[in-house]
Amino acid sequence: MAPVSSLLLRDLLSMIIRPKLHWLRMLFVWRGSLLNRILPQLFLLVSLATLVVVVHHYYPGLLPDLTPLPFTLLGIALAIFLSFRNSVSYDRFWEARKLWGAVLNETRTLTRQQLTAADASDEQNRQFVYSLIAFVHALRAQLRHTDATPALQQLLRPEAVTQVIKGRFKPELVVLDLAQQLRTMRKQEQLCPILFARMDQHLSQLSACLGGCERIASTPVPFAYSVILHRTVYTYSFLLPLGLVATLGFMTPLIVVFVAYTFLALEALAEELQDPFGTEPNDLALDAMTNMIESALREMLGEEIGSPPVVPENCVVT
């Protein structure tokens, strides 16, 4: 397998690492601000608002005379809707993070119990822990639709590799192999009945974490929410110049782009957070978390692990 430090560095390249910025610098931050996703729309809105200002100034009766009042009422309703939409997306993000935290806790607990309470050989202990590491790699690969075959071939028992690699739900097959290892140790009286039952409960918790991640990954936010919000945000933004030009005049493009940036960025953020297992800058750093769990378990085995990559304090990577 690749060194842990290089794998961590690869994942750092897909996320944002930065110190806390001064409030003034925060105003001009580009990376992670979603501007790259909505910049074309903002340019289009500025152009439209400028055209509205020019037409209103030189051809006063050509455009409909709208007042700011309906836009004020619609803006309040839209802000509430956006708040709800972002809350739904962040709930999915945070639940996914808690599930991966539970995976870390359960694998550490199983490793500790195997190493300290089971009367097994060093090779059996090492294979059991390696199978736990294989579960984490298989879970990450399933959520991101990538191939974990190289890692599984190096970590799993030879008699389990073929079945797991050919399987559709690889993480659950790894859990099955872990249970079979526990059963073998129980038959050989290397585990007492109480410890066997406790460790099996922790395996069940790993399956529960797997099921929770699969539920988030396979149950998107209802499409109607995205459609309604998208249509409303864009309709509001493109009609806004008509409601402000009579009051603001040549300041209309500036105010329109500021208001539109708020609404468009919030919509883009909700779309990014609703799939926490993706590879967007604000998604979960699954590669880093996977290799952190692997490092923790290997260290418990007494193996030497590479140092994580050091990112300078003033470095910003995405």
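The record above closes out task 2.4. Task 2.5 opens with a second protein, given below.
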Amino acid sequence: MTNTDINTPRVAVVIPCFKVKRHIASVISSIGREVHSIYVVDDKCPEDTGTYVEQTVNDPRVKVIRNSVNLGVGGAVLAGYRAAIADGMEIFVKIDGDGQMDPALIMDFVAPIARGKADYTKGNRFFFLEKIQRMPPIRLFGNAALSLMTKLSSGYWDLFDPTNGYTAIHRDVAKHLPFEKISNRYFFETDMLFRLNTLRAVVTDIPMDAKYEDEESNLRISRIVGEFLVKHLRNFTKRVFYNYYLRDMSLASIELPVGLCLFLSGAAFGMAHWASSSLSGVQASAGTVMLSALPVLMGTQLILAFVGYDIQSVPKKPLHRHIANRPGAA
């Protein structure tokens, strides 16, 4: 992608740092001159990455930010966002400090936002199918499962690879995010999508390759699977309430609760009579079976109708352009 056809905005790069001392200098040196500021956020790193950067990196664009306590990747990124907002940056790109994310792609993430086509962009390592085979199988399976859950909880049905941390966001959208409510740790990227949907922000996937070298992941699937399930359910419930009952009402607002009631009542009725038949040895009548099957089928149809409506409701009008056009907007 070429970038000569867009007016380059003031771009900032945010790099959260925790145990990335071996890679950080190389990452910074690879960032092109189109970037105005680089915020290195030392998230109470045991390797004191912030001091290392100050002593070894001479790039005048670099500003080191230190968190007094370890907040996790989300807390580090949000600290960088706050600094970028205060310094008047326009688009903030977040990359990791471990060398997995190619800084040469930064303007690919910036371009859709600068052109007014998106509010937030994120990487997708699954776009080029022939290169997926390089991804470790456990990550491939985990990302597929997490992507399905994220589509449901965030409402962005057209996105994949939700845990990808290569992202960019427009300042005017970032300023409207509830920083104090966003998850600070491993759920950060997914929670960001949920918060963006509540703003009706437009999110776009950017194709990219994954790099797996000698980095060590701090994420343990067995530790977070239960937490992720609970948070996805919470976000789905809040999103549905906000979008379909608090902000607006539509036919889908009726389809979901009626569908759930029919499905659950039919299933409960059928299970109860199945258990009774098993204990008594008397086969249930055809009428009893129909009284169970009919509400289950009708409920399923209504739930699918709601999902279809939800898929069609993915935000399509960039929020930051609307904000910029408001009277008195900066």
